[in-house]
Each structure stands twice: as structure tokens, then as C-alpha cells.
Amino acid sequence: MQADWLMPLNDLFLPLIEFMDQGGAVLWWLAAVVAVYWLLVIERILYLVFTFPKQRKQWIEQWHQRSEHHSWHAHAIKQGWIGQAHIALTQNLNVIKVMVSICPMLGLLGTVTGMISVFDVMATQGSSDPKLMASGISLATLPTMAGMVAALAGMFVHARLVKTCRLLEMKLEKSLRSQR
């Protein structure tokens, strides 16, 4: 017997589980890829909101505490900090981009495997019933739709993250150029 508090969860996840089952095993792999890339996106957002501003403030304070800003040594220090910022800001962005680009491919793989199973059923049953074929083809295209939706959302978020990181890097460089 299930606990009463689990009943609303069953009602919430039942349509999702039915959709995933209709799309086949590839749709579960697609869901795993999407979950990982969204975890990486959340990690990047948390870094940009909480960690990077503290590091940026520390670099700017250290720069303004320096007595001279024009020597080769000072320039090398400033470029080193900008390089560290670039590496820290762009961490995981390429992984997110690759995972987003995998989503449509997994969707197409799901469609191909779904179509193979439809044709297999048609061959074993010897049926060419249009209703059976339409139903099978409809179910086979679900992974493509899911892959495209996941890729579109991921492309948008990735582009925004890249733009934000470039802007933050340029602001840091500008702040390190200025003197008090």
C-alpha cells in the first residue's frame, strides 16, 4: 500500500513516464543528456552570480593596491588575471554546447529505431493497416520532437551564457585598465 503523500507525485509523473515509454529507450538517454546539460547550466549560473563577482572584486582590489601599473611586470600580472578569468568563465561551456548538439541526434536515433520496430511489426504480422502504420510512425517521431525542443532551449541558454561571460570578461579588463 502506498503512502498518501505519494499519490500526488504519481499523478504528476504518470504523464511524463507514459510519454517517455511511448518514445522508447532512446528518449530516456535523451532525458539523461538534457538533465546533465541543465545541471551544468545551473552550475554556470551559480558561478556567475555568486563566485565570479567575489573573485573579480579581489582582482580589482589587488590591482588598485599596486603602486605602479605601467611596467611589463604589472601588465603580465593583469593579463594573467584576465586569462584566469577567461578560463573560469568559459569552463563547461563547450561541454554544454556538445551536449546540446547531441540532443537532435539522439532524437533522430529514436525515430530510426522506432521506425525499424514499426516495420518489424508490419513484417511479422503481414499487416499494412494505415491506422497501425500512422500510430507507429507518430510514436516514432516523438524522440525527434523531444530532441529538437531540448536542443532549441539549450542553444538559447548556451548563447546567453557565452554572451554574459564575454561581457563579464570585458568589464574585468576595463576595470583593470582604470586607475584610481
TrEMBL record:
Keywords: Cell membrane, Membrane, Protein transport, Transmembrane, Transmembrane helix, Transport. It comes from the Bacteria. The keyword Membrane applies. Signal peptide: none annotated. The chain crosses the membrane at residues 26-50, 98-119, 139-162. It is found in: Cell membrane; Membrane. The keyword Endoplasmic reticulum does not apply. Its main location: membrane. InterPro entries: ExbB/TolQ_transport (IPR050790), MotA_ExbB_proton_chnl (IPR002898). It is a multi-pass membrane protein. Pfam families: MotA_ExbB. Residues 70-173 form the MotA/TolQ/ExbB proton channel domain. Belongs to the exbB/tolQ family. This is MotA/TolQ/ExbB proton channel domain-containing protein. It comes from Vibrio diazotrophicus. The lineage of its organism: Bacteria, Pseudomonadati, Pseudomonadota, Gammaproteobacteria, Vibrionales.
